[in-house]
């Protein structure tokens, strides 16, 4: 295994002070990074897409685990330290300089499957996450998502019916995938520390229920949770056929969105997709 300098030395050598505009909160604890890289299971010889490698802390843990990493980073200053890392692990690391929101990820690996790992700023992470979970084609090319989120967002992803955290994000994350909180990460693990606690979310795809359009399910949850305190008869009023679907399915229109199970949302969308 190549001997690498401590991450703090890499940062200092390249003048890589964290920039707020790019949502940079770096991780330096190599034991923690190793644990995060182990969340998706063994990565030896597997393809990994890492988004936002920054100075390469998680990247080095992935390379040490034997992964073939393609990393997308938009901060030019990180290119030199990442190139050094690539030299230490010949043939294992490809770095793409650019905005991950504008790059077609699936095309990077041809027909091969890949795991996705990222520690990203909140807004970019959420936009990519919803993109990876949306769309009609399923199963996706990615085999798992291992992503750092603010703890509050992670709790919304895994939330169950009847909780305040249950909403569109939970249904999107759970109707054809299985999300779990793999570990909580204290704010003090980051440099600089963010204001709130974080958590690593791990998501694996499951079978897609038959006869349901992803777009229709999105329309149903958008309407239902758009007015989450209202009864379904009010919140779903504007969605053609929705009130009749509730009746067909025997779902009481006096219920509110957060009392429905993910399966009930799927069944409403199925009737409307027919
Ligand atoms: N992975 C490193 C770590 O864990 O220490 C850095 C994490 S830092 C929270 C987020 C990284 O994502 C930064 O290096 C930032 O420049 C990069 N980034 C932010 N927005 C991005 C985008 N749209 N596309 C690619 N990288 C982005």
UniProtKB/TrEMBL annotation:
Keywords: Cytoplasm, Methyltransferase, RNA-binding, rRNA processing, S-adenosyl-L-methionine, Transferase
EC numbers for this chain: 2.1.1.182
Residues that, per the record, bind S-adenosyl-L-methionine: 25, 27, 52, 73, 99, 119
Gene3D superfamilies, sorted: Ribosomal RNA adenine dimethylase-like, domain 2 (1.10.8.100), Vaccinia Virus protein VP39 (3.40.50.150)
Protein name: Ribosomal RNA small subunit methyltransferase A
InterPro entries linked: KsgA/Erm, rRNA_Ade_diMease-like_C, rRNA_Ade_Mease_Trfase_CS, rRNA_Ade_methylase_Trfase_N, rRNA_adenine_dimethylase, SAM-dependent_MTases_sf
NCBIfam families linked: ksgA
Any single GO CC term annotated in Swiss-Prot or TrEMBL for this entry: cytosol
One GO MF term attached to the UniProt entry: 16S rRNA (adenine(1518)-N(6)/adenine(1519)-N(6))-dimethyltransferase activity
Top-level division of the source organism's lineage: Bacteria
Pfam families (UniProt xref): RrnaAD
Domain Ribosomal RNA adenine methylase transferase N-terminal positions: 32-207
Function: Specifically dimethylates two adjacent adenosines (A1518 and A1519) in the loop of a conserved hairpin near the 3'-end of 16S rRNA in the 30S particle. May play a critical role in biogenesis of 30S subunits.
PROSITE patterns: RRNA_A_DIMETH (PS01131), SAM_RNA_A_N6_MT (PS51689)
Taxonomic source organism: Novosphingobium umbonatum
Gene coding for it: rsmA
The reaction(s) this protein catalyses: adenosine(1518)/adenosine(1519) in 16S rRNA + 4 S-adenosyl-L-methionine = N(6)-dimethyladenosine(1518)/N(6)-dimethyladenosine(1519) in 16S rRNA + 4 S-adenosyl-L-homocysteine + 4 H(+)
UniProt-listed HAMAP family: 16SrRNA_methyltr_A
Family affiliation: Belongs to the class I-like SAM-binding methyltransferase superfamily. rRNA adenine N(6)-methyltransferase family. RsmA subfamily.
Major location category of this protein: cytoplasm
SUPFAM superfamilies on file: S-adenosyl-L-methionine-dependent methyltransferases
């Amino acid at each position: 295994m190549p001997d690498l300098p401590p991450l703090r030395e890499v940062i200092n050598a390249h003048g890589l002070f964290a920039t707020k505009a790019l949502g940079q909160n770096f991780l330096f604890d190599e034991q923690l990074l190793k644990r995060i890289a182990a969340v998706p299971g063994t990565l030896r010889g597997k393809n990994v897409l890492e988004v936002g490698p920054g100075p390469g802390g998680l990247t080095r843990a992935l390379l040490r685990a034997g992964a073939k990493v393609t990393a997308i980073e938009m901060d030019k200053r990180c290119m030199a330290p990442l190139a050094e890392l690539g030299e230490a692990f010949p043939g294992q690391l490809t770095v793409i300089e650019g905005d991950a929101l504008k790059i077609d990820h699936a095309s990077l690996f041809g027909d091969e499957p890949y795991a996705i790992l990222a520690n990203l700023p909140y807004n970019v992470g959420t936009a990519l996450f919803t993109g990876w979970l949306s769309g009609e084609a399923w199963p996706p090319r990615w085999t798992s998502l291992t992503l750092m989120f603010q703890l509050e967002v992670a709790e919304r992803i895994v939330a169950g019916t009847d909780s305040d955290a249950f909403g569109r994000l939970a249904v999107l994350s759970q109707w054809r995938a299985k999300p779990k909180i793999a570990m909580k990460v204290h704010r003090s693990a980051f440099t600089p520390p963010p204001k709130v606690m974080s958590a690593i979310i791990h998501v694996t795809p499951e079978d897609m229920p038959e006869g349901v359009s992803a777009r229709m399910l999105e329309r149903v949850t958008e309407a239902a949770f758009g007015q989450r305190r209202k009864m379904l008869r009010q919140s779903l009023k504007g969605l053609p056929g929705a009130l009749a679907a509730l009746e067909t399915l025997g779902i009481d229109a006096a219920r509110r969105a957060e009392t429905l199970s993910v399966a009930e949302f799927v069944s409403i969308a199925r009737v409307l997709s027919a």
